[in-house]
Amino acid sequence: MAFNRRAYFEDAENTPSNVDIKAPIGEIIAQRYSRRGFLKGMGYGGLGVAAIGAMNPLSAAIAAEGEASDRFGFDEIAHGVDTTHHVAAGHDADILIRWGDPLFAGAPAFNPHNQSADAQEQQFGYNNDYVGFVPLEGRFDHGLLVVNHEYTNEELMFPGLPGPQDEHDFTGITREMVEIEKAAHGLSVVEVKREGGKWHYVRDSRYNRRITPRSTAMTLSGPVAGHQRVRTSADAEGRRVIGTLNNCAGGTTPWGTILTCEENFHGYFLGDAEFHPEKDKLARYGVPGMSYAWGRFDSRFDIGQEPNEPNRFGWVVEIDPLDPTSTPIKRTALGRFKHEGAASVLTEDGRLAVYMGDDQRFDYVYKFVSRDVVDRADPAANRELLDHGTLYVARFDEDGTVTWLPLVHGEGPLTAENGFASQADVLIDTRLAADALGATPMDRPEDIEANPETGEVYVMLTNNDKRTGEQVDAVNPRGDNVFGHVLEIVTEGRHTATQNRWEVLVKCGDPARGEVGAMWNPATSENGWFASPDNCAVDARGRLWVTTDQGGNWPKSGTADGVWAMETQGERRGTGKMFFRVPVGAEMCGPCFTPDDTTLFVAVQHPAADGAEDFDGHQGRSSFETPATRWPDFEDGMPPRPSVVAITRQGGGVIG
Ligand code: FEO
Ligand code: CA
Ligand code: CA
């Protein structure tokens, strides 16, 4: 079968590089399940509030107050897959900005048949993922959108490519295409405004900015800055990196900056790891992933020529969108792994906690707690806040405790004898340090969001079809976990604590199919369940919204990805409700509410790409010439275009 870039990334996340997975013993599982016997194949069926309360005192308290009604007023849409998007009745879902839309006065109009790297650098990038909204002058109808452009699908971007046959086949890929790909990566900052009820973007705003791995200089800060292992021939000091790669999800800090997360950076490197001085360390990160041809034309991406370049990616990057001249900063204190997102929450003593997932099968959940308190009155005072603090990795025990293990040089096994000569080593090799501490290997931790009011922290565990029955544990309760689950960390507001409790909120997939082993509140309708939770958002009302990424697995669920509302408290806890779905082959990214909840921005990523061969009426995989959909333009000759969609309520008002 022909190679599919998107599927390749999916497979990279599929393939565990964490080889030291301990198979927990059956007794432990039994112990865990007996503590909460209702979990045992029963799902939420027949459960009263009291039983739910037994697992979550906070929920019990809220339920006791009688909050049992549906917190979402919309009529849900139906599962399905077709060439366009759908939103719940009473809402509009309008295309706000598309791949190729010009951001600056002199930017050329998008022409996919005559694209150039210089044009692409002045246009909205490809594969929009994270979306952040930064209000301007305190307004909720006017602000900046900060959007990640995670990766590129060259077979859908460029005409005339034969399509690669495998991940090492770069037939037809030219130097100019590589430059266009680089220019289509990174981020866009773009001013947006709502006028007459409708959103539009402002071309040539003084805030508009493209940040790319082709041309944007960034600083390395924190314990790794200047270290020997991040020095290259272009950067003898180890403090200055060009660009950011595979920016997946992200977060917003209380002082208004954006955190953008470098995920599958391994895919951009070529070369032979056999001769690399850090061969084993590279292997834990899957470097070189060899999924792009960049290393053929740019020595930075050839590990033979620049052995330290991979150590300069895999970080969380802080960006000040209000200052287009600002230099993005790679915050190394937050660790190096395949960062999905970064959810900030103020701690009980005024510091900052950042919850983060490492998106690969059998990788870990992390949190960073700053050393210093956040100065909310003076944003500039927080300039170094993310450079000092403690990074922790999670161990989820069968008794419902999550223990946060500090990744601190000199503590426990993190010593020179074990290969960690300094805190810089601990951070560059975060995964290896977390392995040494005995963190719990999870079913692909993706987005994490915190509910600041309740202290609940939601963890999206997308799937893990590599987990065997032997490897099942309490917190990852299904083998061959195709559909994923949602975990809740019950902090009760104690975000600095080294121990909290955890609960499984839902086990995803169709509850009507016994073999799936799903667990939902029985109030969930036939359309309310979802599969493969990936990104999420908590709105200003404290309601959870989940978006999905099934990849090529959507034929197994029979529905496209989309947005689901999710009840987390009271009698309806664990009830899903379908709000939006994407066109065929896309995944749903970037759910982002304006602070008044009157707009939901969502990012439709890689339309036409996934599972096109399983889509009725379409022959084989999608290409530029024969995509499974031409969403959103539906014009002959125009390829599908990843786009941000603005969802509003007809006549105004709160979403959902
Ligand atoms: Fe880029 Fe893990 O999704
Ligand atoms: Ca994601
Ligand atoms: Ca994803």
Short description:
With 656 residues, the chain is an alpha+beta fold. 12% of the residues lie in helices and 27% in strands. It has one domain: 6 Propeller (Neuraminidase), CATH 2.120.10.
Overview of this protein structure:
The protein contains 12 helices and 31 strands. With 656 residues, the protein is α+β, with helices and mostly antiparallel strands. The protein has one domain: 6 Propeller (Neuraminidase), CATH 2.120.10. α3 (49-55) runs antiparallel to α4. The longest helix has 10 residues, at 5-14. Residues 22-43 and 45-67 have low confidence and may be disordered. Bound molecules: MU-OXO-diiron and calcium ion (2 copies). MU-OXO-diiron (FEO) binds next to loops.
List the helices and strands and how they pair.
Elements: H1 5-14, H2 26-35, H3 49-55, H4 57-64, E1 86-87, E2 91-98, H5 117-120, E3 128-135, E4 142-149, H6 154-157, H7 175-184, E5 186-195, E6 198-201, E7 209-211, E8 217-221, E9 240-242, E10 247-252, E11 258-262, H8 279-285, H9 294-297, E12 316-319, E13 329-331, E14 343-346, E15 352-357, E16 361-363, E17 365-370, E18 389-396, E19 401-406, H10 423-428, H11 430-437, E20 442-443, E21 445-450, E22 456-461, E23 485-490, E24 499-507, E25 533-538, E26 544-548, H12 554-557, E27 562-566, E28 576-581, E29 587-593, E30 599-605, E31 643-649
Parallel strand pairs: 8-13
Antiparallel strand pairs: 1-28, 2-31, 3-4, 4-5, 5-6, 5-7, 8-9, 10-11, 11-12, 12-13, 14-15, 15-17, 16-20, 17-18, 18-19, 19-24, 21-22, 22-23, 23-24, 25-26, 26-27, 27-28, 29-30, 30-31
Helix pairs in contact: 3-4
